[in-house]
Design goal:
The protein is α+β, with helices and mostly antiparallel strands. Helices cover 53% and strands 19% of the residues. The chain has helices at 23-35, 40-51, 57-70, and strands at residues 6-12, 15-21.
Length: 74
Amino acid sequence: MSARPQKRSVTLKGHRTSVSLEDAFWHELKRLAAQRKMAINALVSEIDVARGTEIGLASAIRLHVLQALKDGQL
């Protein structure tokens, strides 16, 4: 696994955007989406809506994954 952020494309509100996350976060995000039986784009969309304007999308995803791990969801 690479410690350097990897840029991947996601679709939010019908538009493609890129998000840079470390491989470990991409891996856990994929696991969380699979566990919830949803596409990664759908999960990222949920995180995007919940984050508001005070935090960037990549940070919001990292915090969401961290919280899921702390809550025992992963």
